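Open question from group meeting: does this chain pack into something compact, or does most of it stay loose? Before anyone orders reagents, we agreed to write out a predicted structure and look at it together. Recording both the input and the output here so the notebook holds the full record.
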Amino acid sequence: MKNFFYLQRSDRRAVTAALTVLAVAVGVTMYVGHADDATPADGADTTHTRVYYGNSETGKKPNTAYYDTGKRKAELFAFDPNTADSTQLLRLGLAPWQVRNIYKYRAKGGIYRRPEDFARLYGLTKGQYRRLLPYIRISDDYRPAAELYPAAQPTANARDTLRYPVKIKPGEHIALNAADTTALKRVPGIGSGFARAIIRYRERLGGFYTPEQLLEIDNFPQASLTYFTADASACRKLNVNKLTLSQLRRHPYIGFYQAKTIIDHRRLHGPIHSLDDLSLYKDFTKETIEKLRNYLTF
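Structure tokens returned:
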């Protein structure tokens, strides 16, 4: 400080001027800061917080506010999340950023079709959802237009009908001696395997005189018998006086010894005239005679 008085007069004036300018700048800065922290004038609104739709990372706020949230108590009233505006959504107690998410979802074409869809709102808590759920009302205008018309029943094309034939109902019947595999597969419990087995056995027998004969096929479902009928008059007859031993053996009800007995009887006693002639031999039991009655002729 002593050196200050040894300076020339012009230098002392320059230093004094600089100090004065510095002091004035400091004073102005302190005054402005105090003014910003001062209490608002009477009548100023201190109960509202203005929320800006700006860049939250930089902290910059544009001149125009997005909306005024206010410190309001949440209200509950019926609303449609597809049409409710920001004011209504804020009144319901939703946060501003939740309201923005709703607006963005709707702007992209999103639609709340059911009240449950509103639960997908990002950031919505279980408590908020349970509180708002009874008041959500979805307008019919936002439901799928397809609900206006009943769903068309799929129609089976010809190819599907062949692969998966429609089964007949209880009380309906299939004629065993006239049906092909397609008709047989319409019987409940009968598939392609059993249908082919029925056709093969029918050819060997010469026809069915009763549906119970189907039980002679391995593992045949007994419950399916009620859907069949059999015409005994359609059975093919075998002339026992003209067929050879090998031809006789082809029939399921005539074995080797039975066929040999028929040939021996014809050789020793002449033509067979009735089943009574065969009943005299031990190879032809009463049960066998009854089975052959619809297949033999003389």
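Observations to bring back to the group:
Residues 9-36 form the longest helix (28 residues).
Residues 38-58, 61-66 have pLDDT under 50 and may be disordered.
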